[in-house]
Structures
1.
Amino acid sequence: MTADELRNAMVDGVRPSGAALSGRVDAAMRAVPRHVFVPEVSLERAYGPDPVVTHRDGDGVPVSSASAPGTVAGMLEDLDVHPGHRVLEIGAGTGYNAALLAQLVGPAGSVTTIEYDEAVASAARAALSSLGAAVTVVHGDGMIGAPGRPTFDRIVVTAGAWDIPQAWWEQLAEDGRLVVPLRILGLTRTVVFERAGAVLRSRSVVEDGFMPMRGVGAVREQNIRVGAGPDLVVRLDDDRQVDASALRGALDHPVAVCWTGVAVPWGWTEHLDFWLATLDGFCRLLVSRAAVEDGRLMAAKGPWGSMGVVEGESLAYLTTRPSPTDDAAMPSYEVGACGYGPRGADLAARLAERVRDWDRDGGQGVQLWIEAYPADAGRPEVSGVLLAVDKRDSRVLVRVAEQVPAAV
């Protein structure tokens, strides 16, 4: 198949949130050749459904990639770009997304993209230039905003952001829209924010995964091994401390398991992690396949580990088992918690009770509403708030969507 045929087939298969693309996004994705931005891979892979890693650091860790076409399309739909808009992109990556934005804003609009890594910025600039795309590529730190402090109708962030920096508040126009994969206690959600004065209010909240942002003020994830090997890793998203040496003995204790009676199709638990995040010691635990296969540890709930808690010499995390009501057409799994250490049973019971709370609060049907305020804007009303998280430049409130947020 030719590049044009593969590109059209790619767009035909993109259905963000199960819906067909809008006409403008559809036309942009058919017009921009994705393979120009990932020249190292085959045409088939360039137009495939998966992300493509394009740059790695000295340790081989990916630092830049072309996001999956479905993710790109979904963010463009969320951004709702119109001709004439001024758009700021944080994280140029390959430049593909900026090229799509240039198509959407047209000649009356403008696109500025900021990339932290000089080599990545240079490659994106070259690819965009080869297509004649009217995009300003800035090598710099996206966390301090665009040079000259212009305002933008739309800001889109293509990396996991721990905070909403002051520069973004200053450069987003009133009634503007910010689409950002926001990290909240280690939980990443792509949030579509609209600005109304001194508050950003979400229009949608979708679970997704992105590489963490780099730059001034960026917060790296901590990965703390329990013991000498990679069998169990505690992942934290902030500066909290865990005594890994104290946890080594936890695995010498028999496992304590607490099943919840909550069964869900495919084991999918929409936004459950936010209920668990209200517990002290909340974190993600990564469990190696080898430790599960030889029976040393129970499997984590998902392939990327499971949310859980750590306290002193003990820990617990979520696990699953096939539900008695399982059927071949739609497998169902019961959610449980397994604990290790002298207080493992207590921690497992705490996790299990929060799973039941989530189920009582709406379970699979629950929707979240996220608000963000500048850190210096005073203390917003927090009644009915599920979670309140203070960051350097902002305060983030997570509510259950059915609860109407207080007026500002």
2.
Amino acid sequence: MSIRKRNGSDFWHVDIRAPGGSRVRQSTGTTNRKEAQEYHDKLKAELWRIAKLGEKPSRSFDEAALRFLNEHAGTVDYTNKAIHIRHFREVFEGRRLDSITRDEIFTALPEVSGRTNKITRLSNTTKNRYLGTMRAMLNTAMRDWEWIEKVPKLSEMAIGPKRIRWITREEAQRLIRAISTDWMRDVTILGFATGLRQANLLGMEWTQIDLVKRRAWVHPDQAKARKPIGVPLNREAVDVIRRNIGRHERFVFVRGKSPVVKWDIGQWNRAVERAGIEHFRFHDVRHTWASWHVQGGTPLNRLMELGGWSKYEMVLRYAHLAPDHLAEHADTVTIWAHDGSECGAQDGPDMGLMA
């Protein structure tokens, strides 16, 4: 039978013998019998054109998804890519890759998070990550695999400006004292000292550290921008690392005797609350580190290198925190012109005459 339902699936599946003798079995992506029959007929005609006329075979979303994930296995953001692809597969399973439209992709974007028990609406920033994965897969299918002729334009969704969240040194000290677990406290201190991202801190290995020269490094495959990062270690960072010597042969930070798999968000939130700080994520430790640097006079180009940012625009977010380099230009524009002599109230307009 060329059209049938498989056990455990609501979708109709096709089972076709191609002109060359190969067998094609796949989902139609529909639960409607009539639509499945139309899909079967189109696929059979296409197989004939491929065999007799030499046309390129059409590829399905499932084929593209599998190849894309296989090619990105082992990359830093593989887990996120897999989550995005799995979501879109619920909508586009069995679909021809070249038939998927821009409107369908945007309609398929998730509205709420599936990672927590409580319902949380997704921000446009998160939706843009889903779009980024789909864009990357489709562009690869066109440019590298030559499976499709063109791709739909997937422009990013608008994101409003956000205030950089940072805390004072006094607040940071309260937070550190409020953390009751040693490994979490040490990770947090090293975060304030180096500005490293959470994944780089939790996955830090002894082979990445030179305590004699007081430096560490992040390899390109571990960095978000895929570029190596040199990390100078201040005294506080060195003290933290030395406290953890001998706890594990490979990783710097361990939970008990095992490498840290993930951050304890519940304990973190309780510590933030005990410290009397509002709305402070662990990533805001990095924002705080960058803010302290700018306020202390570190040039933005040096901060960009220290933080491993790939775009200068990323460090410009902190520029307003230290406008000292603009002070000499402040008197260029004034309300009343001055001749450079000592000026008193008489240099302004006669307020009595203006009354």
3.
Amino acid sequence: MTNSISKVWSLLVSIWQRANRPAKYLSIGFLTLGGFVAGVIFWGGFNTALELTNTEEFCISCHEMRDNVFSELQSTIHYSNRSGVRATCPDCHVPHNWTDKIARKMQASKEVYGKIFGTISTREKFLEQRRRLAGHEWERLSANDSLECRNCHSAESMDITAQGSRAATAHQQFLFTGEKTCIDCHKGIAHELPDMTGVPGWK
């Protein structure tokens, strides 16, 4: 065993030493061009992978999402409506700006842990965790001023004269003044609410 480790270590040291030697036969221009091409290939591959993981098809490829929250979304106005505009998973759960998107993807990497260890692998487990999971999303949206909601819904474009009196009053009093953000009032807009017992403002 020790002999095998020693051989592997020697091989790694040898590779490292070769990689650090100055190039005898390659010009600086060739190395610069090679580095540029390698960077473009890496960047293209990274962005392609990022966009592939940012699709509804990717999200619902695991049954935890498909059989729980996605099936609930299908009965809401965000999925089917008279205008034919449909919100997909990343529209509501991933910011559009690149830096915010990367930060969100880093946060979401923790969800891979949940998938591997089956945290919500059954309906029963999902329902047990639902309040906690929903709370994480509500906190995130509250902290970023409902950024994902504002990708589609602009306060500046709202015609409050076309809204019901209750909605118009609430938007003028809370949304337009910045006192509250979308998620403060619109919990459960696309998915069923968990048990809200003990949550301030809910009966």
4.
Amino acid sequence: MLNRSNLIYEYDGSFEGLLCCVFESYEKKEIPSDIALIDEHQVSFFPTKKILTDAKKSNRVLISIPKKIGNSALEFIQYSFLTCLPKKELYILMFLHMGYSFGPSVMNMLSNDVVNTLFKAVKHLKNESHLLKGFVRFSSFNGGLAAEIEPQNYVLPLLKQHFCERYPEENFLIYDKNHSMLLLYEPYKASIIPIENMEFNEPNEEEKHFRKLWKLYYNTVEIEGRHNPKCRMTHMPKRYWKYLTEFK
């Protein structure tokens, strides 16, 4: 029997670290009141416990998920971990507790608050990554292409395959300013790395010329009589406009 605890688990922010929190929860037969990044949670009267990342423990949990809950559940929590959902770690832990009890059927328990909350968060993640596949605007940068985005969710792992397949012979990068992460690609080799405060050069004359051509094309194809700002904002949310060349 698992007991609710006033403990706050602290972990390193990695997916493996979160799986170690799940391991700890089962080993100690307790459910923490929260799971926070080490030294980043708000001041609280509740005691804290630092959960160290252990590859053996995380791997045991990782292997158990598809065995006991199904492959779709493993993919689901991996996506959940990329979302911007507040307290996502605690939701994932509680979801796994349910999954170990109910098995694969947990994926259909949408009336449950934990399952429903995670499903909504994953849907938001996938919708945002889908929109950004069309909203990313590249510019010339140091002999390659570069783009900057500010997504709410951590979408670079979902964008990686799309853009690597779309530009297989190019050198390009996509900088996620909100999460301080960089998708870096050179032909047939891609990586996602942490980076702080990346600065982009001012566009050269050639780049300015192509930006003007793109704006001209965008304005030319519009049918004036069908101009509908509200519809445009529905399909192209305003928070993405900052990095859209046609709106600069």
